């Protein structure tokens, strides 16, 4: 299948990478040491978080480049760290690890209707925004998510987090040329340079746990965290206006109800009685370190996970947190992700750490009033059961019933997964597009209140991806068209990334 070449900045859909790659920068690839003499330090973009990449075209820095504000400069510790980072960047340039090629045209603010005629603020003064964690293999779906956010009318700053260089210089350049309200941040490097993390500890965040680390690290106060493989059916910034967020400063979403003896529902004995992993964690938590005492909230006492009905409580594909009201929760979150996770297996990946940080710190929190849903196909043998990827309804009982988002890596990713965590074959395969088009969900389970399930896992006839007896409804109008748009977007991006990589190799 032939793909139309895509300018990743979406300026000219017909513009190919061949047209925008400068011969001068092609030649620089063959002699990165000589190129590094072009004042390496001058090439480093110093954003307010100072983790953006070296500009690959130093003569035309991004229009949204900003310097550290004066109050940062007055902090000698930050200045020292800044110099260390600049030195590290210069070293990378001198050994030729950072290429110098201008591959992508700049996105002008007027490209997106939501950014049209809008003055671009200094990013360091923005306190409301979105966090998306990425690594190189996630770039096609990550960049397409950025386009999707703008398509949905969102104009908040987007912070892209990665760990220890998980995003290559090419990936970073593509990202910062995709959107003018975007920052790239590597908190692992900061913690490594400051001595907070050893190298081994820093490497332990090159996975799901980067997400809670990003929330702890970000300067943003009103934070939306969105997985790159989310498909958004409306602007997620609406979460900041729902009653739950206004009341507690949080909006969390429930995971599937999976009845098995693992994770939060792991079973063992304590003082001659059966105890779950969640109950154990609540009992052994060092409350005194945080000037607190044991005292489970009514929220957790009523939770299905506490009452032995499910191994999982939270789906963390999207969440909203007001950090102004979460200082104690952030302290507990740090303890969970840097210490507790090594001593007790209570979560698949990062997802339970968010609500647990609030529960263990006695900080109020809110879940959606609705259970999670599934998007996929209706079952021939059970027409009231839909099996497939997780989806969520908009989390407000006072609003109309409407599907909010789908978390579906396997529904939009142009790359094939080769292991169950973060392993992908990034060889571009255009034939996979037809496979994904055929897999676009046609049904969604109905909006329901979370309740125990009679299905015990593992279960061959009703696996955990199925919302047993929740009802089956056709997906809403426009659902398929939007999925097709997102799939085409990811494949166009993957196609041009593949071209860029081969150009660099040549």
Automatic annotation (TrEMBL):
<protein>
    <recommendedName>
        <fullName>Nucleotide-diphospho-sugar transferase</fullName>
    </recommendedName>
</protein>
<keyword id="KW-0808">Transferase</keyword>
<comment type="similarity">
    <text>Belongs to the MNN1/MNT family.</text>
</comment>
<keyword id="KW-1133">Transmembrane helix</keyword>
<dbReference type="InterPro" id="IPR029044">
    <property type="entry name" value="Nucleotide-diphossugar_trans"/>
</dbReference>
<dbReference type="InterPro" id="IPR022751">
    <property type="entry name" value="Alpha_mannosyltransferase"/>
</dbReference>
<dbReference type="GO" id="GO:0000033">
    <property type="term" value="F:alpha-1,3-mannosyltransferase activity"/>
</dbReference>
<dbReference type="GO" id="GO:0016020">
    <property type="term" value="C:membrane"/>
</dbReference>
<dbReference type="GO" id="GO:0006493">
    <property type="term" value="P:protein O-linked glycosylation"/>
</dbReference>
<keyword id="KW-0328">Glycosyltransferase</keyword>
<dbReference type="Pfam" id="PF11051">
    <property type="entry name" value="Mannosyl_trans3"/>
</dbReference>
<dbReference type="GO" id="GO:0005794">
    <property type="term" value="C:Golgi apparatus"/>
</dbReference>
<keyword id="KW-0472">Membrane</keyword>
<keyword id="KW-0812">Transmembrane</keyword>
<keyword id="KW-0325">Glycoprotein</keyword>
<keyword id="KW-0735">Signal-anchor</keyword>
